Amino acid sequence: MKLDILAIGAHPDDVELGCGATIAKEVANSKIIGIIDLTQGELGTRGTAETRKVEAKKAAEILKVAFRQNMGFADGFFVNDAQHQLALIKMVRKYRPEIVLCNAIDDRHIDHGKGSKLVSDVCFLSGLSKIETTDDKGNVQAVWRPKVVYHYIQWKNLRPDIVVDVSGFMETKMKAVLAYETQFYSDKSKEPETPISSKNFTDSVVYRARDLGRLIGVEAGEGFNVERYPAVNSLFDLK
């Protein structure tokens, strides 16, 4: 399967929170998109790896992505080493995405920054011909390097380098986010409180998008940080 976009998150729900509306918009534009979660979120205070798996599947169905896969890396303890890089290089070479979306370059949760750097390094290494990997059938994989890597924004209010107009797609995003019933606000929940379980946090996801939208003159926006200068053919390509 050749992907237009591969979205990667350290935990199930990272992708939905960071770029769910962008994914929903590009799916509506007939782009082929897949999601890879690095861990099962098993160290989360609320819920379990099993409930997160069910919730992640439901969220993926809401976003209508082509597939969702979990790497099974250790929540909180995965590192950016050869073992983890090679496992993820296989996925990049298997799906050959044009664009990769990944965790924030800096954030409150340590896995987000680690995941960001791991994915960025993997996207470079995947294009080196002297790194040999094989697929599930033992066939040598062709090298592949995505054209660009964009980092979505998470807990911290990082200044975006680009903002995507996601007007009309926030409802789908929030349905996907709230598919994680164990993680986010519910007046019926008996789970312990966490930084993301308050109503304020859920509301902040919406008002951040509205604020970014305000700043670019549209209804809603999602921000990304880039690894190289964005290029346009004409100044008139910019809104």
Automatic annotation (TrEMBL):
InterPro entries membership: Bacillithiol_biosynth_BshB1 (IPR023842), GlcNAc_PI_deacetylase-related (IPR003737), LmbE-like_dom_sf (IPR024078)
SUPFAM superfamilies with a match to the protein in the record: LmbE-like
Transmembrane segments: none
Gene3D superfamilies hit by this protein: LmbE-like
One matching Pfam family: PIG-L
Gene Ontology biological process terms in this record: bacillithiol biosynthetic process
Top-level lineage group: Bacteria
GO molecular function: deacetylase activity; hydrolase activity, acting on carbon-nitrogen (but not peptide) bonds, in linear amides
Protein known as: Bacillithiol biosynthesis deacetylase BshB1
Lineage of producing organism: Bacteria, Pseudomonadati, Bacteroidota, Flavobacteriia, Flavobacteriales
